[in-house]
């Protein structure tokens, strides 16, 4: 077992490549913890049978509200320090959508593999959806909790959005965890940070090319979105 | 792509807050054929499937077993009485009602079957004093109280309910026995009912009721109070 790496993202460490630096793993797992606490407490508040078994409604509600208020914190912290370079590079990769991503998605992963970068289209959609949920859940949840200044119809509307989005989030997160368990290499990359270089070469040809382009000094990986102009 | 998708989600979220109330009632109508005959109970996990939201004002859901349950009718009456669950279920005349439940926060459960004893019957049996003006209700959660005027309390659609939706009133719905005030917003339909007290005047610190003291309307007619225009139940 390789020790958890502290090296910068997209660098080589022997026969392994750093897929997620410490800041990114920290961001992922603090987000994951908050989302799981929110889903668990939210379901307890929402499903009458669970409410009855668990009880302690005020405590569960407070836990839910305060975990919710903490939601943006990991993301803000990830952007706050000297580690933000790596985070930003991966965020830009996740936000960038190519024709091959669409082909990969519509063929359920059969096509578009030869141009696969660091992230596949599913991972991109998952990341965008979950990040997008943060402000929406925060806003609707706040209206539900502090409803006084708003028209009553807003409270109904906010509840409507909050409930349906939570259900969608539950489905997406269950899918995400299922995928992670089915791909031990990816899961380990999020736990320990690295993937085998051979895995990158085989499954992420475009990311591999980016890494090669900077060889022999792989710490000088150019920002993939900084394409030369003209 | 990323930025557009993100802004799209924010936009949809905002629209949802503004128009979600309308979307919700539309969806309830659309989903109704599916949810009404659902034997699995799975559809009750869906939002907009006409589901109750469970509110309590205390830290926990109060608990009282069927065997331990007692309802006291007292105050300005000739014959104070304490009833148990079998009195309410079997001995006293039963009334069944199928009516909507409308919460002041916006959700509405359509056509809920209720069963219980008419409050008017209990009051008649107890013999209300001529000086009496109101009825005060106490919850065994130890905190929540409600009041109705005597005229409101004597309506035919005000029940001491022991059954709803085809089964006993469950603990989260205020079981074993709750109040159901059909024509008013849900906060009048006090849960975990343990005492019906006839009074000659409203009095601090309980009256006119838990939410009324926090600003809700005392006469909570659906569609004619709290600045709302819901269809009457």
Strand order of the largest sheet of chain A: 1-2-3
Largest sheet properties of chain B: 5 strands, mixed
Question: Largest beta sheet of chain B: what is the strand line-up?
Answer: 2-1-10-5-6
Helix content of chain B: 10-25%
Under CATH at level 1, the class of the largest domain in chain B stands as: Alpha Beta
Describe the structure.
The complex is a heterodimer of chains A (230) and B (233). Chain A contains 11 helices and 3 strands. Chain A is mostly helical and 230 residues long. Chain A has one domain: Fumarate Reductase Cytochrome B subunit (Up-down Bundle), CATH 1.20.950.20. Chain A has a 3-stranded antiparallel sheet with strand order 1-2-3. In chain A, helix 1 packs antiparallel against helix 3, helix 1 (22-46) runs antiparallel to helix 4 (72-78) and helix 7 packs antiparallel against helix 8 (152-182). Chain A starts with 11 loop residues before the first strand and ends in a 17-residue tail after the last helix. The model of chain A is unreliable at 218-230 (pLDDT under 50). Chain B is an alpha+beta fold and 233 residues long. Chain B folds into 2 domains: 1-51, no CATH class; 59-214, Sulfite Oxidase, Chain A, domain 2 (Alpha-Beta Complex), CATH 3.90.420.10. Chain B contains 4 helices and 10 strands, in the order αββαββαββαββββ. In chain B, the strands form 2 sheets. A 5-stranded mixed sheet of chain B has the order 2-1-10-5-6. In chain B, strands 3, 4, 7, 8 and 9 form a 5-stranded antiparallel sheet that branches. The longest helix of chain B is centred in the first third of the chain and has 35 residues, at 2-36. Chain B is globular, with a radius of gyration of 20 Å. The model of chain B has no long low-confidence stretch (mean pLDDT 89). Chains A and B meet through helix 2, helix 3, helix 5, helix 7 and helix 8 of A and helix 1 of B.
């Amino acid at each position: 077992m390789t020790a958890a790496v502290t090296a910068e993202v997209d660098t080589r460490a022997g026969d392994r490549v750093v897929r997620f630096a410490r800041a990114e793993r920290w961001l992922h797992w603090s987000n994951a913890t908050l989302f799981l606490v929110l889903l668990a407490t939210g379901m307890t508040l929402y499903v009458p049978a669970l409410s009855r078994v668990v009880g302690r409604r005020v405590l569960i509600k407070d836990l839910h509200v305060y975990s919710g208020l903490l939601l943006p914190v990991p993301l803000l912290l990830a952007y706050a320090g000297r580690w933000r370079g790596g985070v930003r590079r991966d965020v830009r990769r996740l936000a960038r959508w190519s024709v091959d991503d669409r082909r990969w998605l519509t063929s359920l992963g059969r096509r578009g593999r030869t141009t696969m970068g660091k992230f596949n289209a599913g991972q991109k959609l998952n990341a965008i959806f979950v990040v997008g949920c943060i402000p929406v859940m925060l806003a609707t949840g706040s209206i539900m909790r502090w409803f006084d200044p708003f028209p009553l119809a807003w409270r109904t509307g906010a509840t409507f959005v909050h409930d349906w989005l939570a259900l969608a989030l539950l489905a997406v997160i269950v899918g995400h965890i299922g995928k992670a368990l089915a791909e031990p290499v990816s899961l380990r990359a999020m736990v320990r940070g690295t993937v085998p270089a051979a895995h990158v070469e085989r499954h992420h040809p475009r990311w591999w090319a980016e890494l090669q382009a900077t060889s022999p000094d792989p710490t000088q990986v150019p920002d993939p979105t900084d394409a030369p102009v003209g | 792509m990323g930025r557009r998708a993100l802004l799209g989600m924010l936009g949809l979220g905002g629209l949802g807050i503004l128009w979600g109330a309308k979307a919700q009632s539309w969806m309830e109508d659309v989903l109704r054929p599916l949810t009404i005959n659902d034997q699995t109970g799975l559809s009750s996990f869906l939002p907009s499937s006409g589901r109750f939201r469970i509110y309590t004002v205390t830290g926990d859901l109060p608990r009282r077993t069927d065997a331990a349950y007692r309802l006291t009718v007292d105050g300005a009456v000739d014959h104070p009485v304490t009833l148990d669950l079998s009195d309410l279920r079997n001995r006293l005349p039963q009334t069944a009602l199928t009516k909507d439940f409308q919460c002041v926060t916006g959700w509405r459960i359509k056509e809920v079957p209720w069963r219980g004893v008419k409050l008017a019957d209990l009051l008649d049996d107890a013999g209300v004093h001529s000086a009496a003006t109101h009825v005060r209700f106490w919850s065994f959660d130890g905190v929540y109280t409600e009041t109705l005027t005597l005229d409101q309390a004597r309506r035919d659609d005000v029940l001491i309910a022991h059954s709803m939706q085809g089964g006993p009133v469950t603990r989260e719905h205020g079981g074993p026995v709750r109040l159901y005030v059909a024509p008013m917003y849900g906060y009048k339909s006090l849960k975990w009912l343990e005492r019906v007290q006839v009074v000659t005047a409203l009095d601090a610190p309980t009256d006119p009721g838990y939410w009324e003291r926090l600003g809700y309307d005392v006469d909570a007619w659906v569609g004619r109070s709290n600045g709302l225009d819901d269809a009457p139940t």
